[in-house]
Amino acid sequence: MILITRPGAEAKKLKNILEDLGHTAHIDSLSQISFPTKKKNFITVGIFLISSQQAVKTFIKNYSGTKDLPLLVVGNVSFQKLTDVGYSNILLKAKDSNQILKYLKKDFSKLKKKYGNNIIYLTGSVTNKKLIEDLKEIGYSCEKKVIYKTVFKKSFNRTTISLFKTNKIRICLLYSLQNAQHFCRLVRNKKLSKKCKKLKILTISKNIAELMRKNGYLNVKSARYPSQKSLLNLLGRI
């Protein structure tokens, strides 16, 4: 059985995909996403950085204004969503945040001359602090704008705990660093470490895989690319 930890709607879609592929899946969403209700415009100047699909979804739905904002985006899905609604000035479609940092460092002088050295980081309430630090180290100022909120649950549900204890769950899919950190926290709180350390952990990025290994999980693999398609390809090879 595969454990899905993604938020509501995404979890249900993933469960349907997995079942179509012949897998048994169980959902225990570790977090919920809260979106703003009013549309807003940006009055700030600089390069806009969007590193998550949730941020892209919120940006498209809740922000109006010009479609020629200079954008940096992570992932094919996010890139496609933005281009589909008319955003035309995407400076880079990156595979991960490390590729964005390399681009910003390499072209610092050119980008600063054209757009200034301000990066507007569109993110959720749980932020990649290291990314902000790395941007500042390169020489950019980083203006963080929280455009959605992530609320984490306090415990696994009873069914999940029972499935862990009876060794029914064999694989766990992790899509975000924050969910991975919270997963480790809940496992420790419920004294499930002995059971869960045996799980096969499949992650969408190397950073998440590294975090899980640091927390004592030995059977960890990451997708070749940070996309659901790549993660499902990895699952198919197991």
Structural commentary:
- With 238 residues, the protein is an alpha/beta fold.
- The longest helix is centred in the first third of the chain and has 13 residues, at 8-20.
- 43% of the residues lie in helices and 22% in strands.
- The strands form two sheets. A six-stranded mixed sheet has the order 3-8-7-4-5-6, with helices on both faces.
- It folds into two domains: 2-30 and 153-236, Rossmann fold; 36-148, Rossmann fold, CATH 3.40.50.10090.
List the helices and strands and how they pair.
Blueprint: E1 2-4, H1 8-20, E2 25-27, E3 31-34, E4 47-50, H2 53-62, E5 71-74, H3 76-84, E6 90-94, H4 97-106, H5 108-115, E7 118-124, H6 129-138, E8 141-152, H7 158-165, E9 171-174, H8 177-189, H9 193-196, E10 200-203, H10 206-214, E11 220-222, H11 228-236
Parallel strand pairs: 1-2, 1-9, 4-5, 4-7, 5-6, 7-8, 9-10, 10-11
Antiparallel strand pairs: 3-8
